[in-house]
Design brief:
The chain is of the alpha+beta class. The termini are far apart. Helices cover about 65% and strands about 5% of the residues.
């Protein structure tokens, strides 16, 4: 019950941290949560094991009898007889299966087929018969191998199933002697493996036999050009070829079956080893610590000290120098260079943090440089231990074991040394990642102490695996393991104490500290109680898991640092662009006011808010880090904790493969959970993808406004399709079974929503082809206005009356479109002027040219021009052609030009004529006596 409340408390405390935008220290809580939950399970498991051990002293015999009775009762129920047996659990078989198979011949068998056109026919028959005998011999050999492999497979399968049933009924109530026998069997199985490369050899034999089968089919197809050849000899040759072809075909069938049998045998063999390994993991590997252990500890110490002899060490170093002199010299030279350059590297590490936070000079490359320097600063100790390992490589068993210990110590020094370098003052963690300074100081202080304890332990432990030291592994080995566990518990206590000083959520960290400290101690107790192998494996997995979480945390902060630098630059760039846009919009408003036209107050540019970009990018990185960390930890611990495999053992439904001879594929609860995780991951990805793309990719590319929106939209659609397809494939809904449904839905959408689909596709075309952009002035049909918004279905135009026109995207793709500002906003204005006949044409042209050149709205390139374009009814017609920078200058320029031209012509006494018309009046004939009207012209 305590563990249930503890887990609930941890989740309630951690969930707000995971959902909020992470600060510089929130990742500590996330990482510690994962590790704490993991350690909680381990501590619960170890505690349960210890409790079972404490109670097994008085009840072991009774439990063994009860379990044995349960087994016999089950067998009796199956036969219809109910009995109770009191005999102990039977031990493993004394003569287990030994899966040993000889390798295949090195060279595949190949028949000597002579040319039927040139060689003598008798020689051909002789070669064919010789090949037939060889192939028959190979066939018999393969049949024998197949029979042996099938027999081994059947016996191994029976033994595996029987052994699995016995272990399942026995549970964990097995004695130390029984566990020792199981461990011996596991070691024997590991040493007696199936010949390496056996399947490859069978595959080569199969390929050669298939090629020969094809050659034999083509052999008789070539006729002898010699018509006088003996018919009987040709017939005999044909009979031999047919017989050889039949034998080759049989051999191919046998090799096929042999290959499948060997593959199945290997799978069963690996499953057998895995069964033993999983079961042995939770069984005692040694007796409990008692007075005899202290005696063995003294004897082991005497043996260990006596093994240090000067002559074997000198011989080992001489042999190692002779074998690996180049590698040892290169390591020593590298060590000297690193030691000489150490002070310089420390200076450069401090200098790399000087520009952190300075927007104009800050670079992510400074952080990468600091990471490289931190790694190099941790290398001297690693190189020294690696050199010692190479120097002792060619010694006896004891010295070779020490060499292996030095190699393990070098690896541990690398891991802890890099962590120590990252925690260095003014280093990567403090200046670049803004980590807690008190925690970093505690890490810097505790890591050297931890290495001082762990390095001797790691170096000595491999000697316990030598033939002479195996008998002392339960004494010296457990002592060293206990010392290492105490050191880890002390390290966790000191670091977590420092972390709790400045943290706000001290209750959560207090529980976490108790778990981190208690777990190594519980494992040490389990080791002393007899579960030494289990405790060692669990603590090793704990160490690897912690290193993996630390590595993921480092990657996480590197990603945050990279995005932080980019976000600051984007902020500065956005501010500059915003100021330029405001100036441009102010100029457009002024021009619109002068021209009497209406322009949009603001333009809906398709770009994201910087706060949303930061939140989405950090959320996606955090989700990826948590998912990747959890997945790898699941892989690490799946073989250790059987409860993690329960989801793969619950079958929900089966799916037919539509392949003849293939059984149905089961869909388990684990598959369903994986599909749900893929769905949730897809949703989170598309929710946080725009900001991440903007920071990581789009901000590095000089894109036009709206192009990033188009890319993000299409990538989102692509991720949805991939995620949906992957989730359906996991639960067995294959594309071959859904394609007709998708086709039917496609036809239905094509008929029912064809306009919407057409507008959707047109929107994508507009976003990529970009014939219009936000802010462009366009004319479509009778509508002219400014593009203020582009969406997937429709585009919004604001006309000169400030009315918003919602126009479907299909219209812009299928109809004629005029974009006044697509590539060049300059447009031409034509002013028409008429002067009276008799005016000086050259004088009028010069006057008009002077007027247009003096106007500020007219651009110099292209240059304005004046032409006399025609002789009108009452005037000489001129055209003034000028170009303006923006369409908003059209009406102001027209006004200014007409006013200036009128004044200039007036000053030059050039008449602008009124329209003139001639009127002719005719009268009809008059009778006598009536007055006659005269004809008058005006």
């Amino acid at each position: 019950m305590y563990y249930r409340y503890t887990i609930t408390f941890l989740i309630k405390q951690a969930l707000p941290q995971m959902t909020a935008i992470p600060s510089s220290n929130n990742i500590h809580f996330i990482t510690v949560l994962l590790l704490a939950c993991l350690l909680l399970v381990l501590s619960h498991t170890a505690t349960a094991g210890v409790v079972d051990l404490l109670s097994s002293g008085t009840e072991q015999t009774t439990k063994g009898t009860a379990n044995s009775g349960d087994q016999q009762a089950t067998e009796s129920n199956e036969s219809g007889e109910e009995k109770k047996a009191e005999e102990p659990l039977p031990k493993p078989s004394a003569i287990p299966v030994q899966p040993t198979l000889d390798p295949e011949p090195e060279l595949p068998l190949e028949s000597k087929l002579s040319s039927p056109q040139h060689d003598d026919i008798r020689q051909q028959i002789q070669n064919l018969r010789q090949s037939l005998e060889q192939r028959q011999s190979a066939l018999e050999s393969s049949k024998s191998r197949l029979a042996h492999a099938q027999s081994l497979l059947k016996r191994l399968d029976n033994e595996y199933r029987s052994f699995e049933l016995r272990l399942e009924k026995a549970g964990l109530n097995l004695t130390y002697d029984y566990a020792r026998l199981l461990r011996q069997r596991l070691e024997r199985l590991r040493s007696q493996t199936i010949a390496s490369g056996l399947t490859q050899g069978i595959s080569e034999q199969l390929s050669a036999a298939r090629e020969e089968q094809l050659r034999l089919e083509e052999y008789e197809a070539i006729k002898d050009p010699d018509a006088t050849a003996q018919v009987r000899l040709r017939q005999a040759r044909q009979e031999v070829v047919i017989e050889l072809h039949a034998v080759v075909t049989k051999h191919i069938d046998v090799l096929d079956e042999y290959y499948n049998t060997v593959v199945e045998l290997q799978e069963r063999f690996e499953a057998y080893q895995e069964l033993l390994q999983q079961r042995l993991f939770w069984l005692p590997s040694a007796v409990r610590v008692d007075i005899h252990t202290i005696k063995e500890l003294y004897q082991g110490t005497v043996w260990f000290v006596s093994a240090f002899q000067i002559k074997p060490f000198f011989d080992a170093m001489q042999n190692s120098l002779a074998e690996r002199s180049i590698g040892i010299v290169m390591l020593l030279m590298t060590l000297v260079i690193l030691l000489v350059r150490r002070r310089t590297m420390l200076t450069k590490l401090t200098e790399s943090a000087e520009d952190v936070g300075n927007v104009s000079h800050d670079r992510f490359s400074n952080t990468l440089k600091a990471l490289l320097l931190s790694f190099l600063l941790a290398l001297p100790g690693v190189i020294a231990l690696s050199t010692a390992a190479l120097m002792l490589k060619e010694g006896n068993n004891f010295i070779a074991a020490l060499s292996s210990g030095f190699s393990d110590a070098a690896f541990m020094t690398l891991l802890l040394g890099v962590l120590n370098s990252v925690a260095r003052r003014n280093g990567l963690g403090e200046r670049h990642f803004n980590w807690n300074g008190t925690t970093l100081a505690a890490i810097r202080k505790q890591i050297p102490m931890l290495l001082a304890v762990l390095l001797p332990v790691v170096i000595i432990l491999p000697t316990m695996e030598t033939p002479e030291g195996t008998i002392y592994s339960d004494s010296i080995g457990r002592l060293l393991f206990t010392v290492a566990s105490l050191a880890l518990a002390w390290f966790a206590y000191r670091v977590m104490t420092a972390l709790r000083q400045l943290a706000h959520d001290k209750a959560f960290l207090k529980v976490t500290q108790q778990l981190l400290v208690a777990t190594p101690l519980l494992l040490a107790i389990a080791s002393l109680w007899g579960y030494h192998y289990t405790a060692v494996e669990l603590e090793g997995l704990m160490f690897i898991s912690t290193c993996w979480l630390a590595f993921m945390m480092l990657l996480y902060y590197l990603a945050l640092r990279s995005m932080s630098v980019r976000e600051r630059r984007m902020t500065l760039k956005r501010l500059l662009e915003q100021r330029a846009a405001e100036r441009k919009l102010a100029e457009a408003r002024e021009a619109a006011e002068n021209s009497g036209e209406g322009v949009p107050v603001t333009l809906n540019m398709p770009e994201m808010d910087l706060a949303d970009i930061s939140q989405q990018s950090k959320s996606l990185v955090r989700i990826l880090a948590v998912v990747l960390s959890t997945y790898v930890l699941w892989i690490f611990w799946a073989d250790v904790i059987p409860a993690l495999q329960v989801f793969d053992n619950i079958t929900l439904w089966t799916i037919s493969t539509d392949i003849e001879g293939e059984s149905s594929l089961p869909v388990t609860l684990g598959d369903l959970m994986l599909a749900l995780l893929i769905g949730v991951g897809t949703f989170l990805a598309i929710r946080n993808l725009p900001g991440t793309l903007e920071v990581t990719i789009l901000s590095h590319i000089n894109l036009e406004p709206g192009a990033g929106y188009a890319i993000t939209t299409l990538v989102t659609y692509f991720i949805v399709l991939i995620g949906l397809g992957a989730a359906l494939a996991v639960i067995g809904l294959q594309w071959a079974k859904l394609q007709w449904l998708v086709a039917a839905l496609g036809v239905g959408l094509g008929f029912g929503l064809q306009e919407i689909v057409a507008n959707f596709v047109s929107g994508i075309i507009l976003l990529f082809e970009r014939p219009i952009r936000v802010g462009d002035t366009v004319t479509i049909g009778e509508t002219t206005g400014t593009v203020s918004r582009i969406r997937i279905r429709a585009t919004t135009l604001v006309d000169w009356d400030r009315k918003e026109q919602i126009i479907p995207n299909k219209t812009f793709v299928t109809q004629d479109l005029t974009n006044w500002t697509l590539s060049d906003p300059i447009t031409r204005v034509i002013i028409r002027v008429g002067v009276a006949y008799g005016s000086d044409v050259d004088q009028v042209r010069d006057i008009l040219h002077e007027v247009v050149v003096n106007n500020e709205r007219v651009v110099e390139e292209p240059a304005p021009a004046v032409f006399c374009v025609g002789l009108g009814d009452s005037s000489l017609n001129f055209e003034v052609r000028a170009f303006v920078r923006d369409i908003m200058d059209f009406m102001p320029l027209s006004h200014e030009m007409h006013s200036a031209i009128t004044n200039a012509l007036k000053d030059a006494e050039v008449e602008i004529p009124f329209p003139q018309r001639d009127i002719h009046i005719r009268t009809a004939p008059v009778s006598e006596g009536e007055p006659v009207l005269s004809k008058e012209s005006s």
